């Protein structure tokens, strides 16, 4: 069974950091493009970052230079290191078994259940 389980979310103050994890099972994360997508209440899903099979990465404009996507192949786990967090980063974050872009959000059935990130003073 293919499964994605995210963790690492929480409530932090502006300027702080969090690292999200996504443990995959039922497939190898190196066999497919992977991404992080976030959704804030009342807003459309937003592509945060993608990592491609060969290891190249892309980032959304709002998170570039603050967030970093990576993967641990041995642990079959995807990560998102988030630094200098801002209130506008508040959202539920999902890992997805596909790449994403500003115009291309993967279908909901390839996302995990998500982890909530709240940035508030």
Task: Give a description of the structure.
The chain is mostly beta strands and 121 residues long. The protein is 0% helix and 45% strand. It is built from no helices and ten strands. The mean pLDDT is 97.
List keywords for this structure.
single chain; 121 residues; mainly beta; six-stranded mixed β-sheet; four-stranded antiparallel β-sheet; 10 strands
Short structural summary:
This protein is mainly β. It has strands at 3-7, 10-12, 18-25, 34-39, 46-51, 57-59, 67-72, 77-82, 91-96, 115-119.
What low-confidence regions span 5 or more consecutive residues with pLDDT below 50? none
Proportion in β-strands: 35-45%
Q: What's the shape?
A: globular
Q: Please give the order of strands in the largest beta sheet.
A: 2-10-9-4-5-6
SS-derived structural category: mainly beta
C-alpha termini separation: 40 Å
- What is the H/E order? EEEEEEEEEE
What number is the mean pLDDT?
97
Described by strand count, sense and barrel closure, the largest sheet is: 6 strands, mixed
Tell how many strands the DSSP assignment holds.
Answer: 10
